[in-house]
Every structure is written in structure tokens, then in C-alpha cells.
Amino acid sequence: MIPWPYARQGYIVDPTTWMSEDWLKQQYNQSWLDMAKMEGQVGGVWHRFNGKSLVWYPKDDWDAAGYEIPTTWDELVALTQQIADDGDTAWCIGIESGAATGWAATDWTEEMMLRTTSLENYDKWVAGTLPFASPEVKKAIETWSEVWFNPDYVYGGTDGIVSTFFGDAPAPMFEDPPKCWLHKQGNFITGFFPEDAQAGVDYDFFYLPHLTGDRRWPKVGKKPAMVKPGLPGTYQV
Questions:
Q1: How far is CA 147 from CA 1, 152, 235, in A?
Q2: Domain with CATH 3.40.190.10 in the chain
Q3: Would you tell me how many other CB atoms lie within 10 Å of the CB of residue 82?
Q4: What is the distance between the alpha carbons of residues 161 and 146, in angstroms, rounded to a whole number?
Q5: What is the DSSP string of 84-148?
Q6: I need a surface site. Which of 93, 96, 118, 133 has the fewest CB within 10 A?
Q7: Helices (H), strands (E): how many in the chain?
Q8: Can you tell me the distance from the alpha carbon of 166 to that of 56, in angstroms, rounded to the nearest whole number?
């Protein structure tokens, strides 16, 4: 990842200097090309996408338990309480990731910012002009905190959250019976699921609901390929 100020200062090359925009438009939808731009400059070309607004669950056990897919945040919290009342912990959460520990928590904060405030405020927050101490950011963090910091809701409690490697976090969901029922993570997490786990049988997913039930802005993780100046051989690749 290259912070935009470095791109503005010339630390990356606009790929349209050696790759035609017409060709790029044949490869990508316009919305993706727009997301690769800032202030009119193209920063890179996409090679990977992660949908982050996904909640995974153990489908067969879920169906047998009679749980329903929530369509609003309140329904999701009510389901979390229902699972706790049934004697289980609803969520598997882990944010340990070596030097990058905590990025899973930032994902949740971004999700809630997209659900509790405006896109304008979200952009101000990203730009650093809306401080973390602002009411908008506090509300976003307080929203996900009602799940994270309730010891009845998370497998292993808060100690488990900070000490569990993010790739190991969903493992209890595949035990028999499941030790957790919900895990929020991007589509790449299936690479950490058991090798014999079958999609649509052993697991499935639903969209992390908004507060009102409306689908407004899903969170995506985008990975563009970028080129630094002075590497002409790269242009030919």
C-alpha cells in the first residue's frame, strides 16, 4: 500500500503513460477505474478484490438450530443474544496479525462508519479532518463494542480477541458442535477454513446488515498493482 501523499509526490507512475485508457476500459468497469484515481491521476491497476462486509456461519448447524439471517443491526444483536441464551457464544473474533495486529478491528470501525454516518464524514475521517474523538467516530466504535466487549458474545472473550491469529479465529465455528456461530471477515478467509469444508453445506455467509436494513455502502478491500518511477522493464511486463 502506498499512501496517497507519496503518489502525489511522484513515487508511483500513472499506468496510462504506457497503457492506453481504452484498453483499461475494456478490462475493468468504469467504477473500478474511478476507484483507482485520485485528483484525476490513475494510481494503479487492480489485481485483487476482497469483499469485507461478510458474516460467515456454519450452515448445516445453523439450519438445524433454526436461526434466521438478520437484516438489520438490531436483529443481528438480538440473534447474538439468542445464541447466548442458548448457551453458546455467537462470535469468533481474532485480530492478532504480527506487526499488523489490529487491522481486523479497523475493518469493523470502517463498517460502522459507513453505517452510522454520512459518506462525507467518512471521507473526512479518512483524510484526517474528522478526529477519532469526534462524536461520529465514537458512535461507530461504540456500536461494534456492544458485541466485542460482552463476554457472553465472543468466544474466548476480549483476551481471545487480541491473542487469536485472525486466520485461526473461525476454527471453532467448524467444531462439532460449533463453539461459535458468526465470523465477520473478507472472502479471503475461506483459505483458512478446513480443507474439507464445503461452501453451502458446512458454511455460508450473509451481508453484514446496516442499522436500517438498507444496503448502502459495502466495505471492500482493494489491491492495485503500482509501479515506481525508474523501472522501465516493468512497463513491458
A1: 30, 9, 48
A2: 54-207
A3: 16
A4: 14
A5: HHTTS--B----B-GGGTTHHHHHHHHHHHHHHS-HHHHHHHHHT-S-TTSHHHHHHHHHHHHHH
A6: 133
A7: 10, 7
A8: 14
| Angle made by CA atoms 127, 133, 136, in degrees to the nearest 5 | 75
User: What length is written for the chain?
Assistant: 237
Looking at the domain 54-207, which fold is it?
D-Maltodextrin-Binding Protein; domain 2 (3.40.190)
Cell of 30: 468504469
Per-residue pLDDT of 61-104, as tens digits, reads 999 999 999 999 999 999 999 999 999 999 999 999 999 999 99
Cα(110)–Cα(137) distance, rounded to whole angstroms? Answer: 9
DSSP string, 160-211: HHHHSBTTTTTGGGGSSS-S--BEE--GGGGGGS-TT--BTTTBEEEE---S
* Grid cell in block for residue 87: 448457551
Helix (H), strand (E) at residue 61: helix 59-65
Say what the pTM is: 0.82
Question: Residue 115 has which C-alpha cell?
Answer: 453505517
Lookup: cell for 20: 492506453
The x, y and z cell numbers of residue 86, run together, are 442458548
